[in-house]
Predict the structure.
Amino acid sequence: MTKKLIKITLLLLVFISFNSFSEDMSDSTNNKNFLWEVKSENSTVYLLGSIHIGKKEMYPLNPIIENSFNASDNLVVEVNINNASSASNSVDMVYSGDSTVKNELSDYRYEKLKEIAKYCNIPSIMINKFRLGYSLIFLQLKKLIELGYIPDYGVDMYFLNKAEGKRVLELETSDSQIELMNSLVYSVDTNTIDLELFKPGIEIMDSLMYAWQNGNTKYLEEILTSQDSIFSFGGNDMDYKLNDERNFKMIEKIEDYLKSKEKYFIIVGAAHLVGENGIINLLNRKNKYFIKQL
């Protein structure tokens, strides 16, 4: 397993299950950033929602985002993907021995997977050794890159590359994210392997980008909850593990930062900031912080 593939896997974790949604974006703009300032008596924390793969046209970012980063002593990310190689031994990305994805699918569904590969301009033979879930991730990434969405233009990577002189901290570990990714991969419903279910997950990316660029939490939340995941990764139980459970753990670290005397610029996947159990709502429930969207 190469370090580059591990980085890509971690980058895609949050938006692995894009959902279908209509393109009606009327009256959804609020002219803010996907950035919040959270103040305690001692500290200031900036919470930035991330798009893990982006386009060159996203940059330069709004000066409010850049100034908040420059004013911070520490950069905090979910996982520092520049150090992700240590997790390589735990990535269960390929089949062992002579097994291939054909062993997991019926002949009918294998033909459907080949249709997806063709749509993504990938020879099907290239994905035969990838476990099914990772095949779908690889194909999705390939198509998104073709459309101009590049991991190196993700918000996380952008700020990690600018972090010289700042302490870089992590909310999670590579091992914990890889463990979750492996569990997602094993939960794929093979009945959902169909090009017509795959396409919306690609086509929705522009809408996700629109919501992020306009700081529109309501629209992003509607996108993420409008329909079932196109790959059916374990239903509500898996959704809980993917978002809520991790949010509860992240909050503990964020509150520790708010007790310190330093400033922190924290980047998490945008999906972690919205919803009933999103990080912003969880902090608001504490009734002890001043929280403002910038």
The chain has one domain: 3-90+148-293. The first strand starts at residue 35 and ends at 39.
